């Protein structure tokens, strides 16, 4: 009795193993829920696991059970997706209500938001990763709208100030209080409710107009001085030698920065103090850029900073075109350097994990100076370009691996089934194969292409050998005929 029970147990175990192997076979052959046994039988009948089930009827039963299980899983997934979409819509409506009630703080990060509203049903029913993405997208859009509205309101208010208090009414002694007293009489004065913002805009307008007036007056005075100096220089000797004072100044600048080449515009024979001063100011401007300008700013802003540090006399005699060329070249080199540093940061943080969403990558890099140096509008584009390069690199490295492993990949390599899986397991020992695991279709396509190439190469070589044998045979036959003719007494030409 005990022996019979043991035999039955063994038979049951064997039957379970055979059924499980048959199911694995169906899974490997990608049998879908729309499959029909009579059609799909040709996909599986040449595999050893097909023979483990003795009866055709049992095979069909197992096949139908597998199809039913697939349909059930598919239906469950559809239901889950439907519920998830509903929950996401409810979550978005919840965020919309918060925005409409002015209860959405733009300075709040996702962690604080999650802690605050975690117990609310509309929030907790959405997975955390998707919840964070939707939150960040909503926050970004709101910030853009807020900034656009703020800028538009500011421009309208500046236009109102200019209309009521035009630049020709402004004098260097005009004060903010004076402008405010004039504007208070109009109803548009309170179109910006914040007193601080109103004062800042009025102050900005006043400074802008005053700077314009001051620069215009300075320009007129400078022109007068220049004409006076020109008249004096004409009276003096035109071949005035350069004083030691300016030569020493130039030498000190070049000594401090040995990498700075002498500009092409510097004359070979200095004949006047004015020539040397000109090149002295160019070298000072280049040194200022390398020490003070560490990010992209408008050219006009850079010039204002330079004047503030070195005074107006340092720039009066320099051509605008040359200054713009020097600044453009410096900013171009600076941007290239910052982009290289950002790519290096991506290489450290992202590496080969190209499935990381942009929002998560941002959060990982946001406190690094190399990330902050890149313009916000360029960051995502550079990240996507980096991902594409990594993707192409992964494919290229795997192609190299396939070409190297001639011991595994041959013209007779099977492209599916158990033997093919064994080849993949051997390849996985190399990191280049591990990286392409995310793209199984591309992996299989590369292997198939290599096998096809090897087959073509083999048959080309076989064809070549065959042609060589035929040529040799033809040569032997021709020689035999010539020999026969010779024996008969014919002259061989």
Q: What are the secondary-structure elements, in order, as H or E? A: HHHHHHHHHHHHHHHHHH
Q: Main β-sheet: number of strands, strand sense, barrel status?
A: none
Q: How many whole angstroms does the radius of gyration measure? A: 41 Å
Query: What structural class do helix, strand and pairing data support?
Result: mainly alpha
Percent helix = over 70%
List segments where confidence is low: pLDDT < 50 over at least 5 consecutive residues.
237-248, 258-271
Distance between the first and last residues' Cα: 99 Å
Q: How would the global form be characterised?
A: flat
On the 0 to 100 scale, the average pLDDT is 75
Strand tally: 0
Strand content: under 5%
Number of helices in the DSSP assignment: 18
